[in-house]
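Review form for a predicted model. The reviewer records the input and the model, then writes brief findings.
Reviewer: anonymous (R2)
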Amino acid sequence: MPRRQEQEDARPEVTEVAPNILRMELPIRLPGLGHVNCFAILDENGATVVDPGLPGPYTWRALQDRLRKAGVAIKHVHTVFVSHSHPDHFGGAARLAKEAGAEIIAHRSFSFGPPAPAHEHTEASVDDLAVQAEDAGRAEDAGQAEEAAEEAERSERSLAPFENRKTVWGGERPRPPFFTRLKWIAMRYLGGKIIPTITHPVEHGDVLELAGREWFVLHTPGHTGDHVCLHDPENGIFLAGDHVLPTITPHISGLTSSADPLASFFYSLDRVAEIPEVKLVLPAHGHPFEDLPGRCAAIKRHHDERLDKIGSISKGFGRPATVEEFSRKLFKPRSWGSMAESETYAHLEHLRIAGRAERRIEMEGTYRYEAG
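Model under review:
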C-alpha cells in the first residue's frame, strides 16, 4: 500500500500556498506521521508561525532553516498560533517566545501533562497506524534509542499520569508513543520549559487579525478538547490543524474529560463542513486540499461504518462483551492493544449514550457492552 500523505517525510522546500502564507514541513517522529506542516503568515512586521513542531534541537534547526529560506529571522516571529496541545504542534512555541518575544495564541483550555486527564498524544487513528510498519530506522542511532527506552521505562514509573495503569473499562491504560515518553522525562528535568505560556487565550467566535487578515476562531473538540481551527472568510482559507486531515483519520481517544468525544468530533466536523466558500484547506499533516465538506463527510462515514460494525460484532457474540473483545474483532491483530481499546471504548460509549448499546459493570469493575 502506498504511503499516505501524512506519512511522507518532511521536505526542505518552502512553498507559498496562498498569498503571504508559506508551508514549511518540519520532521517529526511519531507513529503514522513523517512531518508536521508549520505555516508562516507574513506581514510587514515579520511572521505569525502556526504549529512550530516538536521540541528539541532537531526540529529547531529545521524551523530555522525553513524560516531562513523564507527570508524571516527568528527575531521577527512575533506571534505563534498553536492548534492544540500535542507536542508536534506546540513544541517550538516556548523557544520562540523566549528568543523572539513572540505572543502565543491557543485555546483557553490548552493543557498538557499532569494533572490533566491521560492524553495519548497520538495523532493518527489505529487503522492508519496499522498501515505504516514500524520503522526502526527513524531512530538516528538504534543503540541510543534502546538505551533511551530503558531509561524511559525506569523514569516514567515515577510520573503521575502512568501510576494507575488501569482504564475505566478495566483494560491497560494506553501508553504514549516512545518519543512522547521521552518528552515527559525531558519535561521533568527541564522544569516543564517546553510547555508554552499561552499569552493570548482564545475561544470559539473570537476574531484574530493576522497579517492584515481577519481570522475567525473555531473551537473544534474531538481529537483533543482544546483543538481550534482558523478561518479567513475573505480569502476562503481554512487552517485545519489535525481536525480534518486529507487521507487519514485523527485518533479519537476514549480517555478524555468528555463523556462522548466522538459526538464532539461529529459536531465539530458538521460545524466546519457548513462554512461557505472555503477554497483552500491547510492541514497540519499532508498536502493542502480544497473539498472541506467532502472530506468531513468521508471522515464521518468512516466512523459511522465502524459504529455499524460494532453492532454486527455484538450480535455475533450473542452476549455482553468486554472492550478488549470488541477491539479484537474490530481491528486486525497487528493493531491490538491499549490504543485500539481506547478507540473502541469511545465508539461503544457513543452508542451507549445514543441509546444503541447497553453497558454492564462487573464486580471487579470491567465494562461489558451489548449493542443493538
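Findings: Residues 260 and 353 are 8 Å apart (CA to CA).
Further findings: The chain has ten helices and 15 strands.
Recommendation: see findings above.
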